[in-house]
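Support request, priority: normal
Reporter: lab tech (M.K.)
Component: structure prediction queue

Hi team, I submitted a job for NAD kinase from Gluconobacter sphaericus NBRC 12467 yesterday, and the status page still shows it as pending. I've pasted the exact input below so you can check whether something in the sequence is tripping the parser. The sequence length should be 252 residues. Please let me know if I need to resubmit or if it's stuck on your end.
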Amino acid sequence: MKIHFVASSTDSAQAALVRLSQKYGNVRLYEADVVVCLGGDGFMLEALHKVLDKSIAIYGMNYGTVGFLMNAVDEGDLFQRLENAQPSVLHPLHMTATTVGGKVKSALAFNDVFLFRQTRQTSRIQIEIDGRLRLEELICDGIIVSTPAGSTAYNLSAHGPIVPLSANILPLTPISAFRPRRWRGALLPSSAVVKLTLLDTEKRATAAVADFTEIRDVAEVVVREDRSRKATILFDPDHGLSERIIAEQFVA
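Reply from support: The job had stalled in the queue. We restarted it manually and it finished. Here are the results:
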């Protein structure tokens, strides 16, 4: 098995890169059977974008902090771990953002797409789902459209629901909603097209973020799941992403 190692810039990840490359070899990406990512969840998201649409899976070892998308650190018998690893297929969200100035920009997200106010003033957002107006005005700090894989990240911190990987559901979660104050969000089918229109943009500037891509001063954002594109992530047996999502719901 030919491995391509990638590592974050932390000292621990870089030291592991040297050790593992010497022990198992480190081929170029286009020659590899699998990519092994050394770092945390943020670095894994970057690596997932790099292997997107390539017929190559990615396996992470946690040299970061939370490591929800990663496996435990164990540098022994890596070939056997990779042989036994179980795949999870992730489809990204596709974001199309139109700025106040009329520029149209696109980005992909494996975790979430979220809007967030740029100033001290709240954002005012109109919500359409599949062409139907669902909420005339949401006054809030922002709003999140999450994938199931990302439902335990920012979405969970904003009190959104955790969603099983196989549920084909996208959580839509407000961030500090002021009006309507009791609106807690919605669960949407993965086929839904979410259109978020920003109101009063001259006074209430808002940014849109897709994973690590930020677009400022947006006027309209359209989000949908792109089933035509995918990346495969590998997990040790009994520690797969679906199991982690379920287990996270029973954490005190």
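Residues 11-24 form the longest helix (14 residues). The chain has two domains: 3-91+230-248, 93-225. Let us know if anything else looks off. Ticket resolved.
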